[in-house]
Amino acid sequence: MFKRSFSLTRIQHIKRLQSSSSSVPKYSTSFLNSNVSKTTARRSTSFLNGHPAAIDTSNKVNPDEKSHFETLAPTWWDSKGSQRILHLMNLARMDFINEILRNYKVQLNANNSNGSKNDIDTDLYIPRFTTSVFPTEIKKNIENELNAAIYKELQKSELTVLDVGCGGGLLCESLARLPFIKKIDGIDMTPAVINIAKQHQSLDPVLAEKLTYAVRSIDEQKGQYDIVTMFEMLEHVDDPKEILISGWEHVKSNGGILFLSTINRDLISWFTTIFMGEYVLKVVPLGTHHLSKYINSREIIAWFKEMYPLSHEVLQVKGTMYIPGKGWVNHDCSNVGNYLMAIQKK
Amino acid sequence: MFRRVPPLKRINKASSNISTLGSSIVNVINHSKSTTPLLSNYYSTIAANENNSSTLPVKSTDILIVGGGPAGLTLAAAIKLSPNLKHFKTTLVDAGNLSENLPKFHNLSSSAYMTNRVVSITPQNMDFLTGDLNLPLQFNRIQPFDGIYVSDGLNDTSRMTMDRESMGNMVELLNIQSSAYMKLLELNANNNTNPIEIADNCKVVDIVKPSTTNATANGVENTNPWPYVKLDNGETYKTRLLIGCDGFQSPVRKYAGIETRGWFYNEWGVVATMKLEYPPFNHIRGWQRFLPTGPIAHLPLPGDWATLVWSTTPELSKLLVSLPSNVFSKLVNAAFILEDGDMQYYYRKLSDAAVDKRIFDEIIEDIDYRIEVKSQQLINKNNSDMYYVDENYPPPIKDTLEKSRARFPMKMFHADTYVAPRVCLVGDAAHATHPLAGQGLNMGLGDSKSLVSVLEKASSRGLDIGSVDLCLNDYWKDRYGTNMMLLGVVDKLHKLYGTRNEVVVGLRQWGLNVVNNLGDVKEFMMNVVSGRK
Ligand SMILES: Cc1cc2nc3c(=O)[nH]c(=O)nc-3n(C[C@H](O)[C@H](O)[C@H](O)COP(=O)(O)OP(=O)(O)OC[C@H]3O[C@@H](n4cnc5c(N)ncnc54)[C@H](O)[C@@H]3O)c2cc1C
Ligand SMILES: C[S@@+](CC[C@H](N)C(=O)[O-])C[C@H]1O[C@@H](n2cnc3c(N)ncnc32)[C@H](O)[C@@H]1O
């Protein structure tokens, strides 16, 4: 019995792979080589114009993707329902964001206080292991103080966030609950998910003031932010680099950070996200992923090097992997499967 | 004084499910009967009507702690000290007069007297209280001890010494409560934008869950609505997370519909504060003897004070708290050294309806005499001197502090889960154990520590801390097993010693001696008692 369903899903899957990748060669082409030449990459306007789909990028959302997420909208917030994997992944990426903010907030602060001397006492950053020589009581006190100091610094930050492709708002709500986030805008091109996001927001009074949702494309969005996030969305758009370019424009310079997560285009990703996730374990709704749209972490890094050679720094790239029964676990192998990335704008 | 249990008065009112601690303790025997009519009340899902019975507006809070016992107050301090949690609006409700009793206790100038609710705190938990929380405990009222001397009342030759440096610390519950309370006041003074609100002198009278559809204005279904907690002063709070630190009778647990498993031991514990003839001059240790009626424990306090937990039959417990204090004191001395037969004789004599001053005097004289004889026998038998008795028996007590005697029914119970949507249980609300291993509050403090770290994690991830699936479940998973193990070990020990069966008594003799000589098992038991795992 097991065998039969196994072979069936496999056939289905291969069919899907063939149909979805008919126009794009599977492994040879990276997401940017096909459209961007090295010379045009430098000047972003010509790069945009040169792109065949650039005429109405602003309103472009793949209709299949849209209807897919429309059907998922009603169960978006059921942490045990169709989006469970996303709920769990949200934990891993919040950990990732926290880690980055704790380590790189200095720049963010400098940015915020408009060049005024930042008053961080760098002596506070004694590595944790040195405290182990102290008696417990003192150690605990030091750790408490250290934590408190880091938090105090962060709290002063009052960061602003733009979440692109926010879906039902899992990340938006999480960020909005952090005391050091001042304002967060969530945008998405699927009205149904924005509806759900708004409804869910109304259930928690703490979210009322900081969080605003809109059905809006990234190009229509105004303003610059300390943090721009694009989680689990690049693999759902037809033109990831358009989105990346616009997203990057919304990041404040002098320390703003772009966070993104997506999936490496490799066999392991196919195996874990599509074969295991959608077909065998059925923890991801069928039709969520298309291998051809996956982007390798190396490609993004290379692309940033070309596009913005002097104004960006890749702070961190982490692999993240779903282990049934354990949830998402971040790891150092960022070239396979899902990954998280933080890029700072200089 | 705060929270003293009325010794004999049996308050039996089925209607007051949530009573003060004092009456609830006397009331628990009828637990199953008295709660039935109330469950319907707690389960009711009344559409949250903001002006239901009271005209006061509903107050909103992120964390509502019900119970200002040692668990509730230390948890509150841990929350307000945590960089990750202190931004939550936090409220603590207690039926007692915390704002008067606790500062008063904290400002006692000396250890002129000791209170009768004293617990042994493991070194690990002392670290938590003094290190993590940095509580201003009154250290001159705390007695560290280095071991427990365990013996078998039916079997003089079997005994076990569990000696280990800093096995535990004898601390008054009021010392813990008051220091946590003072810490909270201090934190409030430094953080006047978001202080903890302490609502004392008010009881939780009802908790209702708003219906899921009417909970919000725009008609969105709310699958996890905030519970409404009603107080007897007419106020109502709605809260993101409701933490029940409300002891054995826990109204929070009843609201959440969490079932418990356990039983009463048909045994009551008598506590008392005792004055010693002279302070111990050698080891400072606890003494425990397993009598056929239940274990009796004599634990050290600073100077010439000691505290007693004497578990015995319900009838005898009544008798013990009603005796004149000089008779009671002699009986305690007798219980640690005389034979079971002697004790049975005294119990019989004292239970007699016609007992009078003459009989009391006779008994005192008799006990003195027999202890003298027994001590001499022991010295001769062991070819030793006076010190033999000092070394192997607790220091004799001179007197028992006036009004310090109280009695509690002994029980063991465990809640099936510690969490429900927007609810979690901590301390005695989740579990209770026989005090023979001194684990009750230690388990509660372990709960607090665990809950705080789970909430910190969830908060740093920006989750709704009322979510069972993504947050609270981790707390339950972390604690249930550990607590179950402790409850199990303590219960097995109790069963083992709760019998006169000769075979078992024989095995026990063998057992205690073997355990005394078997490093590993003894080490394990010492670890359980002292909280190291
Ligand atoms: C004889 C004896 C000896 C013990 N020895 C030890 C020992 O050596 N070591 C050890 O670790 N433990 C020991 N324990 C156990 C220890 O005392 C308890 O575990 C501990 O006191 C429990 O603390 P708590 O805060 O969880 O609950 P409690 O102390 O029961 O506090 C509950 C609080 O909730 C409040 N409350 C209840 N209902 C309401 C309501 N409706 N509205 C408002 N407020 C309410 C009460 O006023 C009270 O303040 C012993 C217990 C006994 C009986
Ligand atoms: C898998 S969901 C991820 C949602 C959210 N970022 C998260 O991780 O919780 C992908 C989202 O991207 C949105 N999306 C797809 N194409 C988009 C586009 N071109 N512009 C904006 N959003 C888009 C979809 O509507 C969907 O909500």
Automatic annotation (TrEMBL), chain A:
<dbReference type="GO" id="GO:0120537">
    <property type="term" value="F:3-demethylubiquinone 3-O-methyltransferase activity"/>
</dbReference>
<protein>
    <recommendedName>
        <fullName>Ubiquinone biosynthesis O-methyltransferase, mitochondrial</fullName>
        <ecNumber>2.1.1.-</ecNumber>
        <ecNumber>2.1.1.114</ecNumber>
        <ecNumber>2.1.1.64</ecNumber>
    </recommendedName>
</protein>
<dbReference type="GO" id="GO:0031314">
    <property type="term" value="C:extrinsic component of mitochondrial inner membrane"/>
</dbReference>
<feature type="binding site">
    <location>
        <position position="235"/>
    </location>
    <ligand>
        <name>Mg(2+)</name>
    </ligand>
</feature>
<feature type="binding site">
    <location>
        <position position="232"/>
    </location>
    <ligand>
        <name>Mg(2+)</name>
    </ligand>
</feature>
<keyword id="KW-0472">Membrane</keyword>
<dbReference type="GO" id="GO:0010420">
    <property type="term" value="F:polyprenyldihydroxybenzoate methyltransferase activity"/>
</dbReference>
<keyword id="KW-0831">Ubiquinone biosynthesis</keyword>
<keyword id="KW-0489">Methyltransferase</keyword>
<feature type="binding site">
    <location>
        <position position="188"/>
    </location>
    <ligand>
        <name>S-adenosyl-L-methionine</name>
    </ligand>
</feature>
<dbReference type="GO" id="GO:0046872">
    <property type="term" value="F:metal ion binding"/>
</dbReference>
<comment type="subunit">
    <text>Component of a multi-subunit COQ enzyme complex, composed of at least COQ3, COQ4, COQ5, COQ6, COQ7 and COQ9.</text>
</comment>
<feature type="binding site">
    <location>
        <position position="231"/>
    </location>
    <ligand>
        <name>S-adenosyl-L-methionine</name>
    </ligand>
</feature>
<keyword id="KW-0496">Mitochondrion</keyword>
<dbReference type="InterPro" id="IPR010233">
    <property type="entry name" value="UbiG_MeTrfase"/>
</dbReference>
<feature type="binding site">
    <location>
        <position position="93"/>
    </location>
    <ligand>
        <name>S-adenosyl-L-methionine</name>
    </ligand>
</feature>
<feature type="binding site">
    <location>
        <position position="165"/>
    </location>
    <ligand>
        <name>S-adenosyl-L-methionine</name>
    </ligand>
</feature>
<dbReference type="InterPro" id="IPR029063">
    <property type="entry name" value="SAM-dependent_MTases_sf"/>
</dbReference>
<keyword id="KW-0479">Metal-binding</keyword>
<comment type="similarity">
    <text>Belongs to the class I-like SAM-binding methyltransferase superfamily. UbiG/COQ3 family.</text>
</comment>
<keyword id="KW-0808">Transferase</keyword>
<comment type="function">
    <text>O-methyltransferase required for two non-consecutive steps during ubiquinone biosynthesis. Catalyzes the 2 O-methylation of 3,4-dihydroxy-5-(all-trans-polyprenyl)benzoic acid into 4-hydroxy-3-methoxy-5-(all-trans-polyprenyl)benzoic acid. Also catalyzes the last step of ubiquinone biosynthesis by mediating methylation of 3-demethylubiquinone into ubiquinone. Also able to mediate the methylation of 3-demethylubiquinol into ubiquinol.</text>
</comment>
UniProtKB/TrEMBL annotation, chain B:
<dbReference type="GO" id="GO:0071949">
    <property type="term" value="F:FAD binding"/>
</dbReference>
<dbReference type="InterPro" id="IPR051205">
    <property type="entry name" value="UbiH/COQ6_monooxygenase"/>
</dbReference>
<dbReference type="InterPro" id="IPR010971">
    <property type="entry name" value="UbiH/COQ6"/>
</dbReference>
<dbReference type="GO" id="GO:0120538">
    <property type="term" value="F:2-methoxy-6-polyprenolphenol 4-hydroxylase activity"/>
</dbReference>
<keyword id="KW-0999">Mitochondrion inner membrane</keyword>
<comment type="subunit">
    <text>Component of a multi-subunit COQ enzyme complex, composed of at least COQ3, COQ4, COQ5, COQ6, COQ7 and COQ9.</text>
</comment>
<keyword id="KW-0285">Flavoprotein</keyword>
<dbReference type="InterPro" id="IPR036188">
    <property type="entry name" value="FAD/NAD-bd_sf"/>
</dbReference>
<keyword id="KW-0472">Membrane</keyword>
<dbReference type="Pfam" id="PF01494">
    <property type="entry name" value="FAD_binding_3"/>
</dbReference>
<dbReference type="InterPro" id="IPR018168">
    <property type="entry name" value="Ubi_Hdrlase_CS"/>
</dbReference>
<dbReference type="GO" id="GO:0031314">
    <property type="term" value="C:extrinsic component of mitochondrial inner membrane"/>
</dbReference>
<dbReference type="InterPro" id="IPR000689">
    <property type="entry name" value="UbQ_mOase_COQ6"/>
</dbReference>
<keyword id="KW-0560">Oxidoreductase</keyword>
<feature type="domain" description="FAD-binding">
    <location>
        <begin position="405"/>
        <end position="456"/>
    </location>
</feature>
<keyword id="KW-0831">Ubiquinone biosynthesis</keyword>
<keyword id="KW-0503">Monooxygenase</keyword>
<dbReference type="InterPro" id="IPR002938">
    <property type="entry name" value="FAD-bd"/>
</dbReference>
<comment type="function">
    <text>FAD-dependent monooxygenase required for two non-consecutive steps during ubiquinone biosynthesis. Required for the C5-ring hydroxylation during ubiquinone biosynthesis by catalyzing the hydroxylation of 4-hydroxy-3-(all-trans-polyprenyl)benzoic acid to 3,4-dihydroxy-5-(all-trans-polyprenyl)benzoic acid. Also acts downstream of coq4, for the C1-hydroxylation during ubiquinone biosynthesis by catalyzing the hydroxylation of 2-methoxy-6-(all-trans-polyprenyl)phenol to 2-methoxy-6-(all-trans-polyprenyl)benzene-1,4-diol.</text>
</comment>
<dbReference type="GO" id="GO:0106364">
    <property type="term" value="F:4-hydroxy-3-all-trans-polyprenylbenzoate oxygenase activity"/>
</dbReference>
<comment type="pathway">
    <text>Cofactor biosynthesis; ubiquinone biosynthesis.</text>
</comment>
<keyword id="KW-0274">FAD</keyword>
